[in-house]
Amino acid sequence: MGFDHLASIEGIDWPQDGVIEVVYHAESYREDLRGVLVEIRVRAPRDTPRLPSLIDVWPNAILLERETWEMLGVVFEGNPDLRQLLLPPDWSGPPPLRKDFKVVEEGVYVDVE
Question: Strand, helix or coil at 64?
Fold first, then answer.
């Protein structure tokens, strides 16, 4: 359809619905499609969020999927590079952008509502 550039991937945690929603925004470099933004929304079960990778459609998805995997725990099947991008390499905690993530600082529990 001519949308040759994946501009972003965002993830939304909906714990009350038991899903992680992944939102893709695609654009085009073609002159006749400039200024048109396509949004695609997909939901995956929160306890086992798995989606097919879109790197065969948009090669730059490799890094955007990697960030979404790291921050929300969505596994993109077929992405060959799901490893830490922003968090420390030895991170073993839960995905930090999930709404039930607890922030612990200097041994003090902080509950952010």
Answer: helix
